[in-house]
Amino acid sequence: MAGERDCAVIVIGAGPCGLMLAIELGRRGIPVVVLEEKTSPARFPAANATQARTMEHYRRLGFAEEIRALGLPGDYPTDIAYFDRYVGHELARFRLPSAQAARAMIRTLTGSWSAAELPHRCSQMYIEGVLRAQAQACATVSMRAGWRAVAVRASTDAVEVEAERADGGAHALLRAAYAVGADGAGSATRKSLGYDLIGERGAVRDFLGGRMLAFHFRSSELYGVIPHARAWMYWAVNCERRGIMVAAHLFTPTGGLGYNTAVEDAVNLGWKLAAVLKVWGGGCLIESYEVERRAIAERNTAYARGFADSVGGFVPPPELEDEGAAGAAARKAAGDHLHAHARFEFDIPGITFGGRCDGSPIILSDGTPPPADSINNYVPSACPGGRAPHLWLPDGRSLYDALGFEFTVVRSGPKPPDAASFKTVAAALGIPLAVVDVASEEARDLYGADLALIRPDQIVAWRGNTASGAADVLRRAVGHG
Ligand SMILES: Cc1cc2nc3c(=O)[nH]c(=O)nc-3n(C[C@H](O)[C@H](O)[C@H](O)COP(=O)(O)OP(=O)(O)OC[C@H]3O[C@@H](n4cnc5c(N)ncnc54)[C@H](O)[C@@H]3O)c2cc1C
């Protein structure tokens, strides 16, 4: 019975996924308990690439600038540089902007990088600090540090989570409508529910396949020793050893997609769980999570594997470090390969913005074909199922800053049709809905229709030129059929 529940949702694990889910739910006033077995914040850097789409979500929630201020100094380049040895020859360098430059650049970029935010480089341990503070600032979120979930059981009217203090000192039984396992790669929740991992395991490559060793060190003398221009990521590639210095997981690490995928999982699930708990979400909403996110997770892991093959399969020739013509030729060939690879792995708007939810029961296809999926190229498109195309508004805001927190109907072009019926139906169904006018022809061309229904996670659910079918559109978009 609802009255006996401790909260609406129990989130197990306070990594980026669990914290982001707690924020999405907490901002919607949903009572949440977060169990985290650790008592202190992470002490190791882990992820360092926050992709642009994740930054757009942080912007939607109002803390992108706080995140961008973290990490490297504002004017520090985020280049990826390859050397035979850190004190030897530089083989290739892929130049990327500092945080300061990224802020200015994003307003000038079009095409693949037409976005509200560029990526940001910062260690996960600092980002988790912001996410934790944001979750704790939500009045309905209760963080229980030092509590480990030991069992999850479904009963007829609730989910029960057995928890114990990580020091073994106390036990508790918590009941909620939902429990979400965000407890990482070795997830005990996943195992306890009998779910196995799928996908490729044990890939062996010359590098980035098989056993890897990671360590975290601090040095005040490093820059004095490395005789090269500063970079964010330093690769050493020679016949003895290969290493990456920046500051293991389920995801192949290349591409920096593990944490970013986890954040988008949380964003997708957050609004859906909240909608169902607030009763305006229908029966298909929760099931659409797996349809939408599983396909994207499989896509992203496949891309990450491709990056690992590209860089991990490269074998440094024996003459790479030799002085003289043969060494120079080997370094030129290695540099060309590594530069092309860096462009392939670190300039990925297609992956970042191009993930799609085609085939989802809550996406209303208009029969137009979606743009081809591509790693390095993103084609802005309002074909339902993809990220709402971005544009800057005449007042200098991002279109995303103008969208409502839940659903939004965007009326674009100089003479858009009336969208009042969307408002009427939404009010009747209890769906929070905003209507935003973007009067430019550019917006109309970009969206390819006068009206577009944008979901809370900024995915286009529907587009069309008349609001006459508003009732059917809204009902399906929120999972009623
Ligand atoms: C060196 C390194 C570099 C990386 N670089 C990148 C990158 O650049 N970009 C990228 O996208 N990804 C990167 N990753 C991957 C990224 O760190 C993970 O994908 C990300 O942490 C996953 O987030 P999560 O919230 O799902 O899980 P986790 O971060 O693993 O969080 C799970 C949390 O659950 C807690 N927990 C576990 N079991 C229980 C339990 N029973 N009860 C309560 N709490 C529990 C854990 O203590 C932990 O805090 C990197 C990883 C490493 C190690």
Q: How many DSSP helices? A: 15
- Let me know the average pLDDT: 93
Biggest sheet statistics: 4 strands, parallel
Radius of gyration of CA atoms, rounded to a whole number: 24 Å
What ions, cofactors and ligands are bound?
flavin-adenine dinucleotide
Which word captures the global form? globular
Fraction of residues in H or I helices: 25-40%
DSSP strand content: 15-25%
Q: Please state the structural category.
A: alpha/beta
Walk me through what this model shows.
With 481 residues, the protein is of the alpha/beta class. The chain is 33% helix and 17% strand. It is built from 15 helices and 17 strands. It has helices at 16-26, 52-60, 64-68, 99-105, 124-136, 188-192, 222-225, 258-277, 284-312, 325-346, 349-354, 399-402, 420-429, 441-447, 470-477; strands at residues 9-12, 32-36, 49-50, 80-83, 90-94, 120-121, 141-145, 147-154, 159-165, 171-176, 178-181, 233-237, 242-245, 407-412, 433-438, 451-454, 460-464. A four-stranded parallel beta sheet has the order 7-2-1-11. It has a four-stranded mixed beta sheet with strand order 5-4-12-13. Helix 8 runs antiparallel to helix 9 and helix 13 (420-429) crosses helix 15. The chain is globular. Flavin-adenine dinucleotide is lined by residues 12-18, 35-38, 46-49, 124, 148-149, 182-185, 188, 214, 248-249, 251, 253, 256-260, 262. Flavin-adenine dinucleotide binds next to helix 1, strand 2, strand 8 and helix 8.
